[in-house]
Specification:
Shape: elongated
Number of strands: 0
Order of helices and strands: HHHHH
Number of helices: 5
Bound molecules: zinc ion
Helix content: 40-55%
Radius of gyration: 24 Å
Length: about 140
């Protein structure tokens, strides 16, 4: 009778144990703890809970806007920022200029929102125009 042996070693140290495996951040590739909902380095959401939790989704949304503002990769991102925050700036300007009808609280809210939205539009556009180009392919 032929002796049947497995062709692979029983104790292979080359293969990492599954309990050692750590999820990588899809945004910056840093390994994170299994229980983490957000990346410890860049703050990107790692789990579906991070995008749906009552407070956690605010951080997930903030990460998206931060990524879009700091590293806009394509023109459609810049267009989206112009659309979202351009509308916000127009609304804020309307609140400021119609303060006689709406009162001082909405005027103060508009006065806060107007520079914030204009700064986000300016930063995104500046970072898009100054982004490093890896190749000559049009986007
Ligand atoms: Zn990360």
């Amino acid at each position: 009778m032929e002796d049947v042996k497995p062709r692979w070693p029983e104790n292979n140290d080359q293969v990492p144990d599954e309990s050692d495996a750590k999820p990588l951040c899809l945004s910056c590739l840093v390994p994170n703890e299994l229980s983490a909902h957000f990346c410890a380095k860049c703050g990107a959401p790692l789990t579906s809970y991070a995008a749906t939790g009552p407070f956690e989704h605010l951080f997930a949304e903030g990460h998206v806007y931060r990524q879009a503002t700091e590293r806009p990769r394509s023109f459609i991102v810049v267009f989206g920022i112009w659309l979202i925050f351009g509308t916000m700036a127009l609304t804020a300007a309307a609140l400021v200029f119609m303060s006689r009808e709406n009162g001082v609280v909405s005027a103060a809210f508009g006065a806060f929102l107007l520079p914030v939205s204009l700064i986000i539009i300016w930063k995104t556009t500046r970072n898009y125009l100054a982004r490093p180009r890896m190749d000559n392919t049009p986007d």
